[in-house]
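Entry 12.
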Amino acid sequence: MKIICLQDATASTSKYRRMKTVGRAITNYEANLTNTAYLSRGLLSIKERKLFGQTPAKLKISQNPDFQEEASYQIQFIVTKQWTLYSITPLHKFSYGKLWEYSKQLSQVITAHKEKRFILDGETDLMFQAKFSSFSVLKTKGKKQTAVLIEIMQKPLMVDDDDDDDEEESKVVWMGCLCYACTSDFVETLPEDFTCLPLFLVHGAQGFSNIVEAWLQQTFDCYFSPLHINPIHLAWMAAIWSGCNMDHRVHATELTFSVPCLPYPLDISYAIHSEDAKDLWDSIHSIQGEVKQEEVELFMKALYKHFHRHFMIHLSSTQLVKVSTSVASLHSLGKVKIHQAQYLMGVLSLLTELALSKIM
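Predicted 3D structure (tokens):
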């Protein structure tokens, strides 16, 4: 086993350190978890061809669709980018037929904020252009909600007079995506005047996010809140993502734990070869297409026991704050990066369920 001992995480501070281990296959998982406070009790399962099952006390996730080639361009907007997650209450009086009108209104608001000037009605030559568009690749089968992509483009400060193609000169500086990527029936209970797109993914500067959030709240009488991920769901993802089948694995399975009650911040980063993590999960996982809570507990317990054997540290006394696998990376603060397009809807489905749980 290769071990990288305690080392400085950044050159600017000696108080913030990281510990990393790369372990081999683990098969001994007889002992109980030292502390299962972060894993709720109960038996939970998933149906065939589901990436995730019910998270503790949550609903099930939709199937992974087979994406068509024409959707590959849209998928690239989501995959490989890091997104910040928010939950958003249903939008009042939102209309898919008014996306052009929304684009115009938001363009004026953004330009007014950034240039600190009054925008005349009908003014079109704006420094910032917002664009609303339907994002059909993220539509869940059987649901009427289609995801909406919001892009903010900025014109260059210096434009070549000989080049009339302003579209090519503009640069996308911010993106947001409103989506409903799960099979929950919550949307069926809403009045017709409301559109439910509870998961909001944001990629870009916080300043633009604040402007867009304020405009959406004022226009559609909705409310935003950051979508944080608790250790329960992170543990489930660590286990199930590690067991996903794929042609190639480009990332190790890495779990990051935060150590509490210290006078300085300390993270422990625990990396396992992805093949070894899958072998461990396969040795625990019994029924194809079904995942049980006790299996997730056994998976985490085996990793804890292996780490304790080498470092005499009880990870069960720390808090799991980040999971990174070949499928996706997810931080407790609501930062996600999806690595595999084939599992795009599976990841977004769980995140949608979590977003719904905040507004129901």
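Annotation: The helical segments are 72-75, 99-115, 166-169, 206-220, 231-242, 274-284, 293-311, 344-359. The longest helix spans residues 293-311.
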